[in-house]
Amino acid sequence: MDIFVGSLPFKYTEKDLIGIFEVYGKVSSATIVIDKRTRQNKGFGFVEMPIAKEAMKAIKALDGSDQLGRAIIVSEAQKTKKEKGLIRPPKTGLRKVRKKILSSLSATKNEI
User: Would you call 103 exposed, middle or buried from its count of C-beta atoms within 10 A (0-12, 13-18, 19+)?
Assistant: First the structure.
């Protein structure tokens, strides 16, 4: 089961995340989302636990618990649209539409 963990302390590492979840059962993986530009923890991550019963026990126990002065949010991860099989339409032609709108706005501005 995939678990979302939010409001993580910025000093937390993936090892810390595994440590707090291992108490409740086996952890397959843990990932903390990192900002590409600043290389800082974004304050949320995901934990994967293979046994659903252990995962639910961890969610109930850890949701709202204090971790380095922050109350963390723990819940079952939601599937994204892409995982559900819904595909976003391609962004074709948006530049032309934007250019047309901007040119019409500038034309009306010049008329005033």
Answer: exposed
Cα(25)–Cα(54) distance, integer angstroms:
5
Give tens-digit pLDDT for 25-46.
999 999 999 999 999 999 999 9
In the three-class reduction of DSSP (H, G, I as helix; E, B as strand; rest coil), residue 104 is classed as: helix
Q: List Cα–Cα distances, 79 to 2, 43, 83, 85, in angstroms.
A: 9, 20, 6, 10
Crossing angle for the helix pair 14-22 and 52-62, nearest 10 degrees? 100
pLDDT tens digits for range 65-97: 999 999 999 999 987 766 555 545 455 566 666
Q: Is the pTM of this model over 0.90?
A: no
Intra-chain end-to-end CA distance of the chain, in Å? 60
| Paired sense of beta strands 41-48 and 29-34, if any | antiparallel
